[in-house]
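User: Quick sanity check before I run a bigger batch. Here is a single chain. Can you write out its predicted 3D structure?
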Amino acid sequence: MGIIGLPQTLFNYMEKIDRGVLRSVNYNDPVVKYRGSKVLRLVSILSNKKKVDLDIYTAIDIFYTFYLPYPIMDDPKDIPRNKLVSYKIIDSMLRSAYIHDLRSRTVADNLLSSVAAGVFITELQNQLEKLKEDNRPVQSYMKGEVNDDLDDGVKKSVERAMATAMSDVENVKKLRNLVEGEQPGTVSMMAYEEYAPQLIRLARNTEVKKVLELLVGIKPWTISISRKTQRYKHGEITGYELGKDIERIVISTLALPDELFYLRLLEGKLLLYQKVLTQSLGPLYCLLDKSGSMDGIKMTWAKAVVLSLYMRAVKEHREFYFRFFDSVPYPLAKIDKKPKAKQVLKLLEYIARVKGSGGTDISRAIILATNDIRSGIVRETSDIVLITDGVDRIAEQLVAYNLKKSKARLITVMILGDNKSLRKISVKYFTVTKLSKEDMLQVVEA
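Assistant: Done. Predicted structure follows.
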């Protein structure tokens, strides 16, 4: 059956017309056909169907309706009857209440346009299946016969599909920002398109949605972090100063008359570049308590903190490690200094899947983290960030000893609780009394 109950034979006939209903689109261009085929593949995955009963030219039209800065439709008089459905769908899309908000996110963006098109077509199929009572009136509509009731039903179906596309595109965009940190383009577009179905599934995950809501307003570039630097003659230029180090001299100073130049050299008043070298930082290692007492809003807020810390790690070009724990530690997740889409999406799925349950053993989790550092699983000196509500006794001396041997700093984020032992052995200790974005930023920026 076709997209709204149309027999496959008629779809085959439609495919013989090798064009769509938009102007300025070369439907024979291999790149254009590639985009249409990628959309159909995405629809196939989302709808769990091996074959999608939709001609590639309609898929192309829907993709370019989202992608082009100003899509223009052909004159209705030039549209053949067997292309009327495509024309009506594109026309309804362009008249939708969601079109401007959606296109503000998708124009000239291959990934988001593909996501929007794939989600839209999948949802439209679902809506039109509900609309269809029998094939006869649908077939009449497809042949161009007037049927105001059915025409109105198609328009409403398009509107509902646009609403779904809007929601998914917005969350996919947020997820892409998480993957990239503050450096757009670090992940190739081909990699993104490969993981588009995974991004959409994550965008629809209830737990992921809750975490993303908490992250609204916290962007990688808004995280204020003071960099540790040291003076170095071959470092990064940060300003100007006076002195007599010829290696750092500002070129324009060489234009001074000889007498004045040597006088300033003797007085140490030559204009020089001020240069510094940014100190490299070791990995950022997060431990998140998933015990039963952490379940609910505590866990959701803590997950948002973890993702904010990941964004900080990307900004500081640090490796990022993450481990859940309760009475036993869970598998370790790793993100490289230059994030890979596969790693970050795996981390997001991991975070979304785990819920609060079980007991807790904070000492065991911290000691395992220090062993990871000392054994070389985690390279270089690390900051270990522990996020917990502190319902556990700590083997204070043993934990402090292991932290010292691994040369790691412990930073504790205590959620609605207190632990005197953790307070003693932590270089920084935060007591969170309100699960807000402000408290989250305070933790991330510390």
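Residues 212 and 294 are 19 Å apart (CA to CA).

User: Great, the batch can go ahead then.
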